[in-house]
């Protein structure tokens, strides 16, 4: 639209100039017709009217060497004056001929300009298209690039006021136990103003298909998972990545409102994610129970949409699941089931991805190496990059081990029943 408007303006200006040009010819013509002596008058008064002539006359007196060229100049100017409008009909025809030629030339120039403008506009549209394609993930963009494009991360935004939960059964299903019902109720009661949604098998399946329809590998990986517990793990990362907010497992009971999680001396704009320590065992045999020396929990997570940790988690889980399909190992073995879940979708991989993020300078902005030692025996919240890491007490109070304090502790935010959800019918 803008360029169209501009070309209109150019055309208008050009037409106006042509108009003025013809008007001037008309005025000359009219004045030469009505005052036939004007040429004579001007010729007589020539030396007086033309100040250059006066100047030349004066300098001629002082410098005779220049007189020749000066005379030549003044002669040319006289001839020019006469040529334009002061001698006869033949001249007038020539003038009209000249005007016509000028007009044609202007028309041609305008046409050329129009063509050039059209070409410019075409180039501009082409450029705009290329820019859009740059912004859009190109055909062979990686999974991570497409995830980042679909759900960009903005640390400055607020934590969306959502609480997401999921369980095999819906709230109205009789198999939805009273203990979980109380937890579900309390998440809503303690957090007025939050949108609170509990998904069952069917609804979580539907929303994953809907939200990730443009990233088919993700949907495929979700569908391929051979156990509901894997899907529930995957579901939390997918929801938080796309929508942000809080995810809480169904075997949790909130003890304090969500806004209490952020310490007074930390600005919410500094945080992109809140997690808590799951396990920090001091015994040598930790490998029998855990994948990592210190693990972060995933039963309660708060995140802003598009967080890079979630992106990496989703990409890794997707790739590993598709690889298992390819390798024909798409099964969750009964033997060592807990550890297998931990490494596939659970807190083992979760912890690995978080440490990977901390140690990626480009993503986290942290120069020094970050290890489990930075979090062991943590008893106050710690902000590392944009991740607020809470002590074990926050989401696992009353354990009686690994430094977990009682449920009455001011930092006890959420009670976790540690039901082995994957064992439940
Ligand atoms: C789980 O992953 C850890 C490394 O993160 C590895 O040491 C362990 O053997 C894995 N266990 C299983 C059962 O895959």
UniProtKB/TrEMBL annotation:
Chief location category: Golgi
Protein name, UniProt field: Unnamed protein product
Composition skew (Low complexity), residue ranges: 58-78
Record's GO cellular component terms: mannan polymerase complex
SUPFAM superfamilies xref list: Nucleotide-diphospho-sugar transferases
Keywords recorded for this protein, A-Z: Coiled coil, Glycosyltransferase, Golgi apparatus, Membrane, Signal-anchor, Transferase, Transmembrane, Transmembrane helix
Spans annotated as Disordered: 50-87
GO molecular function: alpha-1,6-mannosyltransferase activity
Membrane topology reported for the UniProt record: Single-pass type II membrane protein
Pfam families cross-referenced by the UniProt entry: Gly_transf_sug
PANTHER family from the UniProt entry: GLYCOSYLTRANSFERASE HOC1-RELATED (PTHR31834:SF11), INITIATION-SPECIFIC ALPHA-1,6-MANNOSYLTRANSFERASE (PTHR31834)
Keyword Cell inner membrane tagged: no
Chain segments annotated as coiled-coil in the UniProt record: 89-137
InterPro entries (alphabetical): GlycoTrfase_DXD_sugar-bd_CS, Nucleotide-diphossugar_trans, Och1-like
GO BP, one annotated term: protein N-linked glycosylation
Superkingdom assignment: Eukaryota
Family: Belongs to the glycosyltransferase 32 family.
Subcellular location: Golgi apparatus membrane
Transmembrane regions listed in the UniProt entry: none
């Amino acid at each position: 639209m803008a360029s169209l408007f501009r070309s209109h303006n150019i055309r208008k200006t050009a037409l106006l100039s042509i108009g003025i040009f013809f008007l001037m010819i008309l005025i000359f013509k009219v004045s030469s017709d009505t005052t036939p002596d004007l040429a004579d008058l001007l010729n007589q008064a020539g030396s007086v009217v033309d100040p250059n002539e006066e100047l030349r006359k004066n300098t001629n007196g002082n410098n005779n060497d220049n007189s020749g060229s000066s005379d030549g100049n003044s002669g040319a100017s006289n001839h020019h004056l006469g040529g334009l409008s002061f001698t006869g009909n033949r001249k007038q025809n020539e003038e009209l001929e000249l005007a016509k030629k000028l007009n044609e030339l202007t028309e041609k120039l305008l046409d050329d300009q129009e063509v050039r403008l059209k070409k410019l506009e075409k180039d501009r549209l082409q450029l705009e298209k290329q820019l859009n394609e740059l912004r859009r993930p190109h055909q062979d963009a990686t999974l991570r690039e497409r995830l980042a494009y679909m759900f960009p991360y903005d640390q400055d935004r607020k934590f969306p006021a959502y609480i997401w939960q999921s369980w095999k059964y819906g709230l109205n299903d009789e198999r939805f136990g009273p203990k979980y019902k109380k937890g579900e109720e309390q998440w809503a009661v303690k957090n007025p103003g939050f949108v609170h949604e509990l998904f069952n098998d069917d609804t979580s399946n539907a929303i994953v298909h809907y939200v990730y329809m443009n990233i088919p590998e993700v949907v495929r990986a979700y569908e391929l998972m051979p156990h509901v517990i894997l899907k529930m793990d995957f579901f939390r990362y997918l929801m938080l990545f796309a929508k942000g907010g809080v995810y809480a497992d169904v075997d949790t009971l909130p003890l304090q409102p969500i806004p209490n999680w952020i310490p007074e001396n930390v600005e919410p704009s500094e945080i992109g994610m809140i997690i808590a320590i799951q396990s920090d065992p001091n015994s040598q045999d930790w490998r029998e129970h855990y994948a990592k020396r210190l693990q972060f929990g995933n039963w309660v997570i708060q995140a802003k949409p598009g967080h890079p940790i979630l992106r990496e988690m989703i990409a890794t889980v997707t790739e590993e699941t598709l690889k298992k399909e390819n390798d024909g190992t798409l099964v969750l073995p009964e033997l060592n089931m807990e550890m297998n879940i931990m490494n596939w979708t659970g807190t083992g991989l979760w912890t690995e991805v978080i440490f990977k993020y901390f140690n990626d300078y480009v993503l986290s902005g942290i120069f020094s190496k970050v290890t489990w030692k930075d979090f062991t025996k943590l008893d106050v919240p710690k902000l590392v990059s944009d991740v607020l890491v809470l002590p074990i007490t926050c989401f696992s109070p009353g354990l009686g081990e690994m430094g977990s304090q009682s449920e009455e502790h001011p930092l006890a935010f959420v009670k976790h029943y540690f039901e082995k959800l994957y064992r439940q019918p």
